[in-house]
Design brief:
There is one protein chain. By secondary structure, the chain is an alpha/beta fold. Helix content is 42%, strand content 15%. The protein has eight helices and five strands, in the order ααβαβαββαβααα. The chain has helices spanning 5-12, 25-39, 57-62, 76-89, 126-139, 153-163, 173-182, 197-206; strands at residues 47-51, 68-73, 94-98, 112-117, 140-148.
């Protein structure tokens, strides 16, 4: 189970996730290219689960492109919003439930063709990320596809150096310690965790995934 559930839920309970896809040009590009990369793996007969589904941006986009779509999120407010979207659109192939990506109780083994993990890794230290990899492997069918997103440790640091970050001026000693040494946010160290592609790929391989 995630050790910082309260912090995650408190951060997202104000509804900031609902309009994130259109908040900035950066966000628009993120969502555009995520959809572009995932489209080739999601077909009409695919059963899809999304861990960290937020308020259902991808659920609404892929609902008409797959056989079934299950959204799971730690924040109850997100699931309430997604359920309302499902109701309004009359979608019979989309479901939503509150759950923890690090412990997917009640979800059977090998039950999904596509497993999307597009948010939980942002908020978990390395040991809990491994729990998520283990759960994703457990619920993914043999021959299935899993997609993982994470925050690049060097990317966030360089971006802050170039563009600034809140009231902090990068580089600075605190950021060097938290971001580069610990892989944590220097202001919200219990909420945002950073990593590198090599670490993510090694953990995924450990749990039986092969990079495409």
């Amino acid at each position: 189970m995630s050790g910082n559930q309260k912090e995650i839920c408190a951060y997202y309970q104000n509804g900031i996730e609902e309009n994130r896809a259109t908040l900035s040009r950066y966000a628009q590009m993120e969502f555009h290219y995520t959809k572009k990369h995932l489209r080739e793996y999601i077909g009409a007969e695919s059963s899809v689960i999304e861990l960290g589904c937020g308020t259902g941006y991808y659920a609404m986009y892929f609902a008409g492109r797959c056989r079934s779509y299950t959204g799971v999120d730690l924040t109850p407010e997100h699931i309430d919003i997604l359920k309302e979207k499902i109701r309004k659109k009359g979608l019979s192939n989309v479901s939503a439930l509150v759950g923890d990506a690090a412990g997917l109780f009640g979800i059977p083994d090998e039950s999904f063709d596509v497993v999307l993990c597009l948010g939980p890794m942002y908020h978990l230290p390395s040991d809990e990320r491994e729990q998520v990899f283990s759960e994703c492997r457990r619920i993914c069918k043999k021959g299935g596809i899993a997609a993982f997103s994470y925050i690049n440790q060097v990317g966030v640091y360089v971006g802050a150096c170039v563009n600034g970050f809140g009231d902090n001026q990068y580089p600075n000693e605190k950021a060097n310690h938290f971001v580069l040494e610990l892989g944590r946010d220097d202001n919200r160290s219990d909420l945002f965790f950073y990593t590198m592609p090599e670490e993510i790929e090694a953990a995924a391989e450990k749990y039986g995934f092969r990079k495409l």
